[in-house]
Amino acid sequence: MHQGSEPMRRTLTGLLAAAMMAQLAAAPLFAQEMKPVITVTGEAGVKVAPDMATIRIGVDTLEGTAAEAMQNNSAQMRSVQEALRASGLQDRDLQTSGLSVQPEYSYPQNGERVLQGYRATNGLNVQVRDLAKLGGILDQVTKDGANNIGGLSFGLQESGKAQDEARVAAVKEARRRAEMMAEAEGVKLGRVLEIREGSEPAPRPMMRMAAAEAAMAPAPIEAGEMEFSTSVTLTWELIKP
């Protein structure tokens, strides 16, 4: 063993002991610096009138052959699309949502299934940006061949402002509740330590109708209101007044 090893070992041992004592001494100091906190969730909603509608318009046809079913279906759907464009809708407002041709059978109680023909279906998602025209549009497309109408929902073309108003209202509600509870305990709110936003549900009124009901001129439709709601959770330090 080298002669210098023992002094070096004693030096390292002393340094480690000093470091451990420093950590132990600092722990109570950190504990003393921790301040009490309060965490509160605020919820709020903003109601607005919708300014647009989305609806699914479909054409169903049943013919003896697949080709006939598709041909007649396409002719009816073209008439529907022409009526929609004539009412002021643009290409961006129309989107095909489904197209199919399937055999259709009947099933007698005694015997094999019987082919009844071929059913072609074509669906179109339509956005109407002028709600005053909605009833008249539905009336017109049923006259031009649409026989499957449903999935009516209302929305906003620009929803960002309503969502931001809901966020601000939720933060104010959280602060109101936090201040009330802090005052009851004889303390005050300090600085904000954390802000977390919850989910943003935006329920929309839904409506479904049969083609016979939609054939009224014009179809009576009420858009009602939409509500954008959210929750925000905030954490504050608590300080003495």
Automatic annotation (TrEMBL):
Organism superkingdom: Bacteria
This protein's UniProt keywords: Signal
Tagged with keyword Signal: yes
GO biological process: DNA damage response
Pfam families per the UniProt record, alphabetical: SIMPL (PF04402)
Annotated signal peptide: 1-31
PANTHER family in alphabetical order: PERIPLASMIC IMMUNOGENIC PROTEIN, SLR1258 PROTEIN
Protein name: SIMPL domain-containing protein
Organism (species): Falsigemmobacter faecalis
